[in-house]
Amino acid sequence: MSFVLPSHPRYLSLVRAAVGELASISGLPPEECRGLILAVDEALANIIRHAYRGQNGGRIEVDCRATADALEFSLLDQGEAPDPARLAPHALDDYSLSGRGTHIIRSIMDHVCYSQVPAGNHLLLTKRLNSSACAQPGDRT
Amino acid sequence: MTAVTRSVNGAIIVDVAGHIDLGTSPALRRTMLDALKTTGRLMVNLAGVRYIDSSGIASLLEVLKEAKAREKLLVLYSLTAAVSDVLNLTRLTRVFEICETEEQALKKGAPAEGARS
User: Fold this and answer.
1) Is residue A140 domain-resident?
2) pLDDT classification of A134: cutoffs 50, 70, 90
3) Which of B21, B57, B86 sits opposite A9 (nearest CB)?
């Protein structure tokens, strides 16, 4: 399932609906469906806010794949490369207004992999379908 | 997303419904900050919120900061699972004053019965 979206917040609800349906038909319980929707949405919002600096004319490619044991979400943009400090895990200050999106993504997904490729900035988010049953403390990257 | 304000017993209630995301959170933030200017007790009814992201949470935090700076009260109530999920993930459940019902929220900061002469 693939989308090419303008970097405009009005399209976020479209992706949320698609991700929710994919998670649901893949057998994830409602709580995990909500989490997955949130993680992908936060990643897209980060691209709009940071990579494209709020400009709505950018291009975002979203590719959603369901395999036997995982759901993968591949996001590609041609905006500015992200600040590594923003992507790294960090402690949350109670009243900090920023950085919570990245924290949410890392809390929900099993793997978060950022890379710069010739086509732009690539973010791969992976959720194991059996992660609820077999996840161990610290078993996240 | 809709955010409608009403006045009850000296407090202002903002009834929020729909999806709060990067596109809609600025409007919610403006509504809440405008409402806060007119009251010492702002109650945010989140019963109709089907989705909220970190930008929505940041808006709530900004209003909380403003309320604290002006020694006013901000109470969130009737949180849906969508809201609770994100507050838990961002470890903010203890930062906000949270009530289950509107009745409980309205008791927060209300003048004690018989206090008026």
Assistant:
1) no
2) very low
3) B21
CATH assignment of the domain containing A35:
3.30.565.10
> Is the ipTM of this structure higher than 0.90?
no
What are the phi and psi torsion angles at A126 (to 5°)? -125, 135
pLDDT digits (tens, 9 = 90+) for A75-94: 999 999 988 777 776 666 66
What is the model's pTM? Answer: 0.89
If 0-12 CB within 10 Å is exposed, 13-18 middle and 19+ buried, where does residue B40 land? middle
B6–A contact, CB cutoff 8 A: no
| Sheet strands side by side (includes B97-99) | B2-8, B11-20, B41-52, B73-77, B97-99
Residue A135 pLDDT class (50, 70, 90 cuts): very low
Question: What are the percentages of helix, strand and coil residues in chain A, rounded to 5?
Answer: 40, 25, 35
* Top-tier CATH class for B2-107: alpha beta
Task: Indicate the residue type of B98.
Answer: I
